[in-house]
């Protein structure tokens, strides 16, 4: 196999595109894909300030790296979720990347600022804190972006992530979620930041290849709390189908965005108002984050009462 | 594990329903499920004449057996597709079942009546005759049902079949097909038979268990032409997910029928007219079956010309 750009021996194959690249040409193709997603979906311009949601993994760091390479103004933000050694190592990778490239990395420390970490937020029924962790991350990324005047929050969600989320929503016919899924989430309230996913057309292995070739030191391990998560089952199912039908994931996601989403009629427009507790944007009286914190506070009180 | 009806040791587990049955109670539960599907979806009554599409496999024979057990008037119809030994063995199983129970089995012989069999209908691009075979079967089951005055055609499509078809249509966002998928297909033209799927809520292993307990001698092998078919890949993917999330297939299909289909707005109503060639109902000027036969005829002519 040879690089489709320079005919040198290829190092990276992109099977769904029937393409292959050498290590020298690949990063350019990758950044070009990012640039096209940003341009075609009108995600942001070079005059705007982007806040990249950083986890220390390959996707978020590859995204940050690519945005800088493309000349965008992008700062990072990391949330200390308090998930033991995993969090320590991902924080170190994020800080090292920022330091190496002389970048600004905002941080929120959950435990220090709010008194609890993600492992304490386990769902009673399912035993996984993944849903709560999502609420925590969405809340803080949005709040910091709005408070510090960023125009947009960019996340490292890739094709595999988006296809797996779509798959989960379709399997359960979550028509509300389906109507809202897409590479751009508009800000429909002054306290709501615009959310974009510049990697949504690049596969997980594409970003891994970019990170390796660009010598980005990311944390390889997956979050230990996510083991057995349904999203991983959906990724696995899609990966097997992709093996037999290269391009299936991309067609699944593109077909949804081009035809399925419209056929599903989109989500009903929701009214955003300010949370009665914290003032952050929400569709409810009290936001999901405040409700979660209240539940946690009551649990701790009951525990203390039972222990005394 | 014990039978939920009589507490005897269980022989069959229906995991998605958290149920188990002994061999004596199971057939009653199975037929009850068939009866409920027929009743709730208003498929047909005991005063109507049902034509069961018979393949010789477990699903169609289990369906025929269950309908008779429930007191319905059901004849069978078998199409000799000409797929070598597989067709010979499936024809024998179908004829044996009919003879054993003193039933009427109509037959259409493709090769004898039309000069070709399914293996000759390979798709040029994909090399599989599955799509053409579907056209052949739909055409003849419909024609025989209408010609002989049956009220409805019943097919043995089970939960796994329906979930896999739905999966394939969703993966490729075939919104037209999605709008038409369901357990009942109404007759929208005098020459179009009503189509129903009384097993659509029963899993493949449920019908296998029924066939074994009721000592139905069905053909075990799958069609050799279907090896590697995408529908089998989708079944495999769903089976793996079902392992991790029992009931997922049923929820996927039920969620579609209850919410997704409506959200997708249904298919645009199509106008049915009579084929200019054969007079059978179609949405086009010339029906898919006649177009296929015409292509086949031209191919054979070209071959003959090249050989002379």
Explained architecture:
Chain A has helices at 26-40, 58-69, 84-100, 110-114, 130-147, 159-171, 175-180, 204-213, 230-244, 248-263, 288-307, and strands spanning 12-14, 19-21, 49-54, 73-80, 105-109, 152-154, 184-185, 194-196, 273-274, 281-282. Chain A is globular and about 70 Å long. In chain A, α1 (26-40) crosses α2 and α6 (159-171) packs across α9. In chain A, the strands form 3 sheets. In chain A, strands 5-4-3-6-8-7 form a 6-stranded mixed β-sheet, with helices on both faces. Chain A has a two-stranded antiparallel sheet with strand order 1-2. The mean pLDDT of chain A is 92. Chain A has 308 residues and is an alpha/beta fold. Chain A starts with 11 loop residues before the first strand and ends with a helix. Chain A has 11 helices and 10 strands. Chain A binds chain B through residues 170-173, 175, 178, 230, 233-234, 236-237, 240-241, 244-245, 248, 251-252, 255-256, 258-260, 263-265, and chain B through 170-173, 175, 178, 230, 233-234, 236-237, 240-241, 244-245, 248, 251-252, 255-256, 258-260, 263-265.
């Amino acid at each position: 196999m040879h690089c489709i750009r320079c005919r040198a021996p290829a190092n990276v194959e992109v099977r769904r595109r029937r393409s292959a690249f050498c290590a020298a040409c690949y990063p350019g193709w990758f950044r070009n894909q990012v640039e096209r997603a940003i341009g075609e979906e009108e995600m942001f311009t070079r005059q705007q300030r982007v806040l990249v949601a950083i986890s220390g993994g390959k996707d978020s760091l590859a995204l940050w790296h690519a945005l800088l390479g493309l000349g965008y103004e992008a700062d990072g933000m990391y949330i200390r979720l308090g998930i033991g050694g995993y969090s320590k190592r991902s924080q170190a990778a994020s800080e090292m990347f920022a330091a190496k490239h002389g970048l600004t990395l905002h941080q929120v420390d959950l435990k220090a600022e709010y008194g609890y970490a993600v492992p304490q937020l386990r769902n009673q029924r399912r035993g996984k804190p993944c849903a709560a962790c999502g609420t925590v991350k969405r809340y803080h990324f949005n709040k910091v972006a709005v408070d510090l005047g960023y125009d947009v929050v960019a996340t490292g969600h890739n094709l595999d992530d988006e296809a797996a989320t779509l798959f989960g929503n379709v399997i359960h016919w979550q028509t509300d979620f389906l109507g809202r899924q897409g590479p751009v989430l508009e800000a429909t309230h002054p306290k709501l930041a615009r959310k974009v996913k510049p990697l949504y057309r690049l596969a997980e292995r594409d970003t891994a290849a970019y990170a390796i070739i660009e010598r980005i030191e990311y944390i390889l391990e997956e979050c230990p709390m996510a083991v057995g998560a349904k999203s991983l089952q959906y990724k696995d199912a899609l990966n097997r189908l992709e093996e037999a039908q290269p391009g299936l994931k991309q067609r699944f996601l593109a077909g949804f965005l081009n035809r399925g989403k419209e056929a599903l009629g989109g989500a009903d427009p929701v009214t955003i108002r300010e949370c009665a507790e914290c003032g952050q944007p929400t569709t409810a009286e009290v936001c999901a984050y405040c409700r979660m914190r209240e539940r946690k506070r009551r649990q701790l009180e009951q525990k203390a009462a039972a222990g005394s």
